[in-house]
């Protein structure tokens, strides 16, 4: 699994996330280092279009997201970051999970985020 960071512009928040080990998550991981404007959707999630569609072959038909889930909504081709739980949704592909919900996500205002890969930390042997 890969680790990424969401840096939230203007709020000084940085949140780490872990990506799943599926085809869509790997394709999303290859896109990291991008800046997106996340807008509020349904008082449940922040969404944004991605630069290109992600492959979904082999993914489940859908899932029931909970707060902290990062997903791809295949019918629209957009990123969805959930800050509240939501019922089962066909077409949602789980990409990963935030380690915590940023405070900036809790309001209805748009949020600018920069998503970047975290360099793997090497363990030091004594």
Q: Tally the beta strands.
A: 10
CATH class: Mainly Beta
Classify the helix fraction into a percent range.
under 10%
CATH architecture: Beta Barrel
Largest sheet: 8 strands, antiparallel, barrel
**Overall pLDDT level:** 88
Please provide the ordered H/E string of secondary-structure elements.
EEHEEEEEEEE
**What is the SS-derived class?**
mainly beta
The order of strands across the largest sheet is 1-2-9-6-7-4-3-10
Describe this entry's structure for a reader.
The chain has one helix at about 25-30, and strands spanning about 5-10, 15-20, 35-40, 45-50, 60-65, 70-75, 80, 90, 90-100, 110-115. With about 130 residues, the chain is mostly beta strands. It is built from 1 helix and 10 strands; from the N terminus they run ββαββββββββ. An 8-stranded antiparallel barrel has the order 1-2-9-6-7-4-3-10. The chain has one domain: Cyclophilin, CATH 2.40.100.20. Residues about 120-125 have low confidence and may be disordered.
